[in-house]
Design goal:
heterodimer, A: mainly beta, 26-stranded antiparallel beta sheet, 5-stranded mixed beta sheet, B: mainly beta, 25 strands
């Protein structure tokens, strides 16, 4: 039985369960109309003596206590939903009332509709003058171009008995293609088509059908971390949410444009997926669920829209099973996952088809399996002083065989890994201690490096701002490891009046940073099979490894109402222990400072970075110094005039200590732009935004090398003047 | 030591020429990952400046005597769509990017299970201009190879294998491929890039925006600096710089590069704007050029190379977007008090808001537990029931505005205590 057949059998089974089981529940949902008020039968209650929960959210603030009952204004009456209202007595937590409700049952089958259309026409004249010092000399080019964008958007919500339907369509037409990487791509796009119809039984069970831009969720990350593209997805969910099944047929890549079937239906490029989850036991002490996931994929060597990658035609079938436990009021969580994959690369003319008809070594379909187990423990949660704290421990183990490969899953092939982490927050101090052990080459092939790697890291964050009695505003800044770090902006507890502005105690305290982060780590890598590896006869750079890397990072952040400053330093030292290169160590140091000021219409940013890399190998002792600094200035006037200027410099110097030689590369960039678009804006019945923008860039690169006694100088200057009508 | 260094240089030069051709290459060998495709910058240059053309690049696991691939041992070829080095115009040096598809890696891993020796070769064929001699005789083609050796992830050069650029908006976290800025997503939306890579190191560069009226984005502008020669890097246009990034690429092989928030994107002129992700070349000893080529600096680095163009992210917006109202700061605060019986009471206070917000959501985290509360936004204050006393102050406390249909408005704001 093929995977596809198995998926279909599972889908039939799930559909059967979905149709039969909803009838088991006898809960009855009260219907309320849009803007409606719920009358809660709570006689003789005083305000503050009870709490009203809507799906566990406290909505007591929306109640009015009357003589014989309590009225609740549903917070979001326009949002179609099913929800549960529970009323508890505050002092005893005794339940006074519980009832299911359903909104959006309007008296008309047609609930709402919204349409929107706009056409924007842009004509651009661009004068481009390039001045270069090379043999091509000076060139001047004048371009004229025009473009138009037409956008039409429509959405509607409908309801007929227990069937809710939402449709949203957005179409765009333009004079240039959507994808710069595909100049011959379509210029008309159904950029969004979302249609979802859902049957909600009186008991609360749901069966839904989604078309167009949709998504297929995943319970097993080894199989699928989530697919978002055009396709068709059917979903089933029981009233008590104990089981849920999704079956979908999606396009093989992320798709935008009319070149793609708007429903994502293709026999050559597709992803068929199944995800089923069932909660076997659900009580406060024990929760136990099981899941099954599968993906069947076929696609050619093509990029997804907005994604570029090394192309390969692929077929991939993956089946995964998993189970999860939540114990002791979900303070202990265990998860076990397993998956098996089959993978192949069909013949593609871009990669394999040779004019000469030569033979190609192709291995055919290969298979592999993987497992991933994890455990999380909430060790402690409580209060330290006036702040809450917690500590949690997580452990995980993972193994993927050498030829395990999935196109949608997250496991990396040929790897065995254990990891543990302790996360904690105690007052103003939070941190993480983690350790990871990794090994590859699980089939112990003699011609492949077998690496044993151990990594230990400690990260501590001191939230000094929390020690002060000041308000905190969440903002987001980039982190060195990706994602977003949440920083805390400092504001005075009471905004000072002008006369109170000079406050010496506050001025003194502001010298302290708002937060300090310290991170220390050590990574050890050793080749286990060392000199047993068989290498090509003449080869360079294939080092057998036995080395440690120590890293230290410290950063401090100052945040004010209008400014922010970040000082950061990173240090790493590569300590090589292997016999032939024991002295070939390397040291890398980075110092950086970033400062930004936003005051009124002005935004000023400055940065400075210095990187020093020293190669300590006596045979090739060298030093690399990189200095990078720049300023950015922006001005937004209330009348819509914008001015932007940027100045940056990058100087790279490489010093060879053995030959006492050095080479230098200098790059300076200067540019400014002016926009007066909004200043010119006139408003009639239609929006109209003419604009004028100027942009001047100059780049100077100067490279000097005493090694070959050469000097290269390149200068580029570009001036653009664009006019939009 | 100087003598040792001299001998080493001579040895490298001898190896580089390999006795088959006068065309030198850098590097001459490389570790490749067993589970991912990868790219590598390879420089080829004729030692005498002789001009050549080259249009063929193959992968194979066995060579013939003249250095060309054994037709019976072919693994595949450099994908035509990723061939950045081929030229039909005679030149004396090229900056090539060797891109190895995963299908070739997989073939080699399977083969390694059958035989002991699993190294394979990337072979470029060079045709001299006219009757010039590239080392194999007048007018004769020469074949130059780079040896590839399967290895673990820690020993592989830093290269980009997959780059995806998208917006993230509230809701289901689905990636948005075409940005349409509007009032509902302007404050909460942000851009990020997901980068799959081989090797480890630092990914550095800029987020830039091409605005209407700017010069067109050229094919060179879309390539990472490491894929280009020194002169080509100078020709890359600089557009409006929005944000600098510096992200660690770890052994896990996936890095998320945070981009600008929607509200930080320039909206001065109408029309289509393109957000570009520009990668600088990563430095480090293993990324440094070791082939002295006339006109190219010695301190040329080529870490974080990709064999493909980095995708851009387009955004558009209605012309009246920026005329939207600016909201009053929430300044949410939690005030504690003691009642007559000595019990601690808590009040949540904030600046009343006008506009489309109808409710304020108060979220408290205690350990792994989340508790939430909803209150009308126009009241400005709400006295919490005594049930909340045991949860306050939480590990993390935020408030969030919500519109009439429950939609999230603006950013979450952390709550201070008084």
């Amino acid at each position: 039985m093929s995977y596809l057949q198995k998926i279909l059998v599972a889908a039939r089974l799930a559909l059967y369960v979905a149709v039969v089981l909803p009838g088991v529940s006898t809960a009855f949902a009260v219907e309320i109309f849009r803007g409606g008020v719920i009358e809660l039968p709570l006689p003789n209650q005083s305000p503050g003596s009870f709490v009203v929960l809507q799906d566990n959210m406290d909505v007591t603030a929306f109640t009015r206590t009357l003589a014989n009952h309590v009225e609740l204004d549903v917070p979001f009456p326009d949002k179609p939903s099913n929800f549960e209202i529970v009323v508890q007595e505050v002092t005893s937590n005794r339940e006074l009332y519980r009832q299911q409700y359903r909104t959006s049952r309007s008296e008309s089958w047609f609930s709402s509709a919204d349409t929107y259309a706009t056409v924007q026409v842009h004509a651009t004249a661009s004068a481009n003058r390039q001045v270069s010092s090379d043999s091509q000399g000076v060139s001047t080019q004048v371009d004229q171009s025009s473009s138009s964008d037409g956008l039409a958007k429509a959405s509607a919500s409908m309801q007929w008995h227990n069937v809710l339907t939402d449709v949203e369509i957005e179409g765009v037409n333009r004079t240039d293609p959507f994808d710069r990487l595909r100049p011959d791509g379509p210029a008309t796009d159904l950029s969004a088509l979302r249609a979802k119809t859902e049957y909600v039984s009186d008991a609360g069970s749901r069966v839904s059908l989604s078309l167009g831009d949709t998504q297929l969720s995943a319970s097993n990350s080894l199989v699928n971390t989530g697919i978002h593209t055009k396709g068709v997805v059917v979903g089933i969910e029981s009233a008590d949410k104990r089981y849920a099944v999704q079956v979908g047929r999606m396009f093989g890549t992320d798709a935008v444009g009319t070149g793609i079937n708007p429903l994502g239906w293709s026999s050559r490029s597709y992803r068929t997926g199944l995800d089923a989850a069932f909660t076997v036991v659900d009580n406060p002490q024990v929760q136990w669920s099981v899941s099954a996931s599968a993906v069947d994929l076929e696609r050619g060597a093509e990029d997804s829209f907005g994604t570029a990658q090394t192309p390969d035609p692929e077929t991939n079938r993956v089946l995964g099973l998993g189970t999860a436990f939540g114990l002791f009021q979900d303070r202990t969580r265990l998860q076990f996952s397993w998956a098996k994959s089959r993978y192949d690369n069909p013949v593609d003319s871009d990669l394999f088809d040779f004019d000469q008809g030569q033979r190609v070594f192709a291995p055919g379909e290969t298979s592999g399996s993987a497992w991933r187990h994890s455990a999380e423990f909430d060790l402690w949660s409580g209060a330290v002083g006036s702040r809450s704290g917690y500590a949690s421990l997580s452990l995980s183990a993972e193994r993927a065989s050498p030829l395990f490969r999935t196109t949608q899953g997250s496991a990396t092939a040929d790897r065995r890994q254990w990891s543990g982490a302790l996360d904690f927050s105690i007052g103003a101090l939070s941190g993480r201690v983690d350790t990871t052990t990794y090994r590859n080459n699980l089939s112990k092939l003699i011609s492949i490096h077998t690496l044993n790697e151990q990594s230990h890291n400690v990260r501590l964050d001191f939230d000094l701002n929390a020690l002060r009695n000041q308000s905190q505003q969440v903002s987001y800044s980039e982190s060195s490891t990706g994602g977003y770090d949440v920083l805390v902006d400092e504001q005075p507890a009471d905004p000072p009046l002008a006369a109170d502005f000079i406050d010496e105690s506050r001025a003194q305290r502001s010298l302290l940073p708002a937060s300090i982060a310290v991170s220390v780590g050590r990574q050890s890598v050793a080749t286990l099979n060392g000199e047993d590896i068989i290498l090509a006869p003449v080869i360079d750079g294939f080092d057998f490894m036995d080395q440690h890397t120590d890293t230290i990072s410290v950063s401090a952040t100052w945040l004010g109402q209008t400014s922010s400053t970040v000082i950061e330093t990173n240090y790493s030292f590569l300590d090589i222990d292997q016999r032939e290169r024991a002295a070939a160590d390397r040291r890398d140091v980075y110092y950086g400072i970033n400062h930004t000021v936003n005051t009124g219409p002005w935004s000023i940013g400055g940065r400075f970075g210095f990187t020093n890399t020293s190669d300590l190998d006596p045979a090739s002792r060298s030093e690399s110094r990189l200095v990078d600094w720049g300023f950015d200035l922006n001005y937004y006037s209330p009348s819509g005039v914008r001015f932007g200027g940027t100045l940056s410099s990058n100087r790279s110097r490489l010093i060879d200590r053995v030959f006492q030689d050095s080479s230098v590369s200098d790059t300076q960039r200067f540019g400014f732009s002016v926009e007066i678009g909004e200043w010119l804006q006139h408003r009639f019945n239609l929006s109209y935004l003419p604009s004028v923008s100027g942009n001047w860039n100059r780049t100077v690169s100067d490279s000097v090398s005493s090694f070959d006694d050469s000097r290269t100088t390149e200068t580029f200057a570009t001036f653009n003047l664009g006019v939009n009508f | 030591m100087i003598i040792y260094r001299f001998v080493l240089i001579v040895a490298i030069m001898v190896m580089a020429t390999d006795g088959l051709a006068e065309i030198r290459r850098d590097p001459i060998g490389v570790n490749v990952s067993v589970d991912k495709p990868m790219s590598l910058t390879v420089r080829f240059a004729d030692s005498e400046g002789t001009r050549f053309t080259t249009t063929e690049a193959l992968f194979c696991y066995r060579l013939l005597d003249n250095g060309q691939c054994d037709p019976a041992a072919l693994l595949g070829r450099l994908p035509a769509s990723r061939d950045l080095g081929s030229t039909s115009v005679p030149v004396s040096r090229i900056t090539d990017v060797m891109t190895i598809p995963y299908s070739i890696i997989r073939s080699t891993v399977v083969r390694a299970q059958e035989v002991d020796f699993s190294d394979f070769y990337y072979v470029r064929r060079f045709t001299p201009e006219g009757s010039a001699d590239l080392g194999a005789g007048p007018g004769r083609d020469v074949y130059v190879r780079v040896t590839c050796h399967l290895a673990g992830p820690a020993t592989v050069p830093l290269s980009l294998t997959k780059v995806s650029v998208y917006g993230i908006e509230q809701g289901d976290n689905a990636p948005v491929r075409l940005l349409r800025l509007h009032r509902d997503n302007l404050e909460t939306g942000y851009v990020e890039a997901r980068v799959e890579h081989t090797g480890t190191g630092i990914l550095e560069g800029w987020w830039e925006v091409r605005q209407p009226g700017d010069a067109e984005v050229s094919s060179i502008d879309l390539l990472p600096a490491a894929a280009l020669s020194s002169s080509e890097r100078s020709q890359q246009q600089a557009f409006m710089r929005i944000k600098r990034f510096r992200v660690t690429a770890s052994r896990e092989g996936v890095a998320i590069i945070p981009g600008p928030r929607y509200q930080d994107l320039p909206m001065g002129t109408g029309g289509r704007h393109d957000l570009l992700l520009r990668f600088d070349a990563t430095q480090g000893r293993e990324n440094r050029a070791r082939l002295a080529v006339e006109g190219e600096p010695l301190n040329l680095f080529s870490g974080a190379v990709a064999g493909f163009s980095i995708p851009t992210l387009e955004y558009t917006f209605p012309v009246d977007l920026l005329s939207a109202d600016v909201s009053v700061p929430l300044a949410a605060r939690l005030i504690s008090d003691i009642d007559d019986d000595g019990n601690k009471l808590w009040r949540l206070a904030w600046n009343a808001q006008a506009g489309e917000a109808v409710a304020i959501e108060f979220v408290v985290r205690t350990g792994t537990q989340l508790h939430s509360l909803l209150a009308p936004v126009d009241s400005g204050m709400y006295e919490l029931t005594s049930q909340w006393s045991e949860r306050l102050p939480g590990t993390e406390m935020t408030v969030q505005l919500r519109g009439g249909d429950g939609v999230v408005l603006g950013e979450a704001v952390r709550v201070r205590t008084e």
